[in-house]
Amino acid sequence: MSWNVPACLARLAVVLLLALASGCASLPDVRYLSNRDLIKKSDPTIVTTKGTLSDGKTQNLLDGIAAKAGDTDILSKHIAVEQAISGQPLVAGNKVTLLDDGPATIRAMTAAIKSARNHINLETYIFEADEIGRSLADLLIAKQAAGVRVNLIYDSVGALDTPREFFERMRSAGINVLEFNPVNPLNAKGNWDINQRDHRKLLVVDGRIAFTGGVNISKVYGKSSFLASRRSQPQPKNAKEAAWRDTHMQIEGPVVAEFQKLFLGTWQRQTGKTLPEAQYFPVLKAVGNSLVRAIGSTPDNDDFGVYKTYISALTHADKFAHITTAYFVPDQQIVQAMVDAAKRGVDVRIIFPSFTDVGMILYAGRSYYDELLAAGIKVYERKDAMLHAKTAVVDGVWSTIGSTNLDIRSFLHNDELNAVVLSAEFADRMENLFQRDLRESDEVTAEAWSKRGFRERVREWTVRIFQYWL
């Protein structure tokens, strides 16, 4: 989503008008994911730097992780769930660093880019020509001049208010710049679909380190959302004034090759060409203990990998499911998976934003509060900062961070990217971050929500009618 509110509305209007003309698609029926026999039949396949692990070595690895998690059965089930629904490998031997705010993410990405020796592959929905965007562009140009191959993908709608000259300057410096699905069909190649957007956020440096999550290239990430919550200032009135609360991650180890494949695949699909040669796939060693799966979802392959992953994690949750979501415009299967989990005793808690850059989406999300609260789901709204994170942690072993919102647009029409991490240590860090956000949030109780005004109810009802096109 955009950081400049008028520009955001312009982008939304472009997609809305053309999406209305393009008709409706639908998400698949995934009720089969609740079938316990499906999970039992799914023996986990784990890949390492030396190839696929044997059954014995796989079990030894899982036993080691389970010992730290404290529950072998829960871990085994979530690994089996991932195996059953995903075509991407579960890769062992990774180090995963949680980046819990915008400034931390920008610093880490900048440091990685400065250290690049061979290539830099950057894919982003938004790349603004503000102080952060200009600083990053200058750095990319400098690295290109130093002999590092720089490749950039940005989304045409996401960067709608960024001057074309900003990208032309990088092109003139020798950087390969790709505008994903140009708004102007005369500039497009192959099948043109304005409704399909590249919402991914991905940086791969030298094929050895990757970053992904919810952070775009924008000045809203220049100030800490947690510091903002400690100031004795009134709640920001709109997203333009606020610090943005987002989550990203830094990944090192063998799974970086899977993220690299996703970047190169996007370039190939959009251009029909391969990128200039570089050492995109260096030999990677195990550097940590996390099992990681890279899930790239795109409308082109009808895989719906991220969608299935979320529903499966909720369907098979035993203890808790703690979710942060910026834009909540789900289909009924997502809602039902949450409701069913709560009804069987799972502690389901969701943190929503208390304000946003697109008011329609805020009210669309709130239109589900009655149903969620009635099922026993705990609902919260983050104060002081604009919540943009898209994360979940389940049962203390399964976590995900990515670009995917819990909305129909992300599942049906966008190229999205999530990382699923199976690690008790990382899940613990995710849970600590969730609890930190919880302390900065107000709980929405059923009693208080029932007293909201008539105008609010009308807004929710009206926006709900048009939720597919949001």
Biggest sheet descriptor: 18 strands, mixed
CATH 2nd-level architecture of the largest domain: 2-Layer Sandwich
Low-confidence stretches: none
Integer count of domains: 2
Number of helices: 17
Mean pLDDT: 88
List how many beta strands DSSP finds. Answer: 22
Structure description:
With about 475 residues, the chain is α/β, with parallel strands linked by helices. It folds into two domains: about 20-95 and about 290-470, Endonuclease Chain A (Endonuclease, Chain A), CATH 3.30.870; about 95-270, Endonuclease, Chain A (2-Layer Sandwich), CATH 3.30.870.10. It is about 40% helix and about 20% strand. The chain contains 17 helices and 22 strands. It has an 18-stranded mixed beta sheet that branches. Strands 10-17 form a two-stranded parallel ribbon. α3 (about 55-70) crosses α4 and α4 runs antiparallel to α10. The longest helix is centred in the N-terminal third of the chain and has 18 residues, at about 5-20. The radius of gyration is 21 Å and the shape is globular. The mean pLDDT is about 90.
Provide keyphrases for this structure:
470 residues; alpha/beta; Endonuclease, Chain A; 18-stranded mixed sheet; two-stranded parallel ribbon; 17 helices; 22 strands; 40% helix; globular
Quick recap:
With 470 residues, the chain is α/β, with parallel strands linked by helices. It has helices at 5-22, 36-40, 55-69, 72-85, 102-114, 131-145, 164-172, 225-230, 256-271, 305-315, 332-343, 359-366, 369-374, 408-412, 424-439, 446-450, 454-465; strands spanning 46-48, 51-52, 90-99, 119-124, 149-155, 176-180, 197-198, 202-205, 209-213, 244-245, 248-252, 290-297, 320-324, 328-329, 347-353, 378-382, 386-387, 391-394, 398-402, 406-407, 414-422, 441-444.
